[in-house]
Amino acid sequence: MGADFYLQADGSVVGLVTLAKDHEGPPFHVHGGVLAALIDEAMGAACWSSGKRVVAVNLNFNYRRPVPLAVALRVTGHIAGSERRKTFTTGAILLPDGTAAVEGSGIFVEAPQIFAGLANPFARLPEDGG
User: Fold this and answer.
1) How far apart are CA 55 and CA 46, in angstroms?
2) Residue 115 falls inside a structural domain
3) Domain count, the chain
4) 125 domain residue, yes or no
């Protein structure tokens, strides 16, 4: 979807994206599925950038405000904790004024066998950026 992710000093990730007409759901607003996919990607990127090769097994989203098209959005992903193979995450979509429009949480499970031999696309995220 075109988000550029950046690693933060605390291990979280921030993505920057502006969505256009092809991501429209309600008139002049972003489709909820697109917003969910962005938070999923940010939460997964937080896991992968920490070296965990994971897949999502549970995702939850709370839509707080409509998200208009063509505005600069910040997408965040954080690791909230872990327990054996499970990693618990949180994420959000922030409007330009910093208001959380969508909040999410997820459970990701380590599955290195699925990704054996594949490069980690989030191993070297650029730092800061947002």
Assistant:
1) 12
2) no
3) 1
4) no
CATH value at residue 8? 3.10.129.10
CA dihedral 45, 9, 125, 36 (to 10 degrees): 30
Does residue 120 form part of some domain? Answer: no
Encode the chain (130 residues) as per-residue pLDDT tens digits.
678 889 999 999 999 999 999 999 999 999 999 999 999 999 999 999 999 999 999 999 999 999 999 999 999 999 999 999 999 999 999 999 999 999 999 999 999 899 888 887 776 677 765 5
Cα–Cα dist 4/14, whole Å = 8
What CA–CA distance (Å, rounded) separates 129 from 15?
Answer: 8
**130 part of a folded domain:** no
State pTM to two decimals: 0.92
- Tokens 């800061």 correspond to what residue? 128
The parent domain of residue 66 ranges over: 4-110
Cross-sheet strand order for the sheet of 13-18? 4-7, 13-18, 72-83, 86-94, 100-110, 54-63
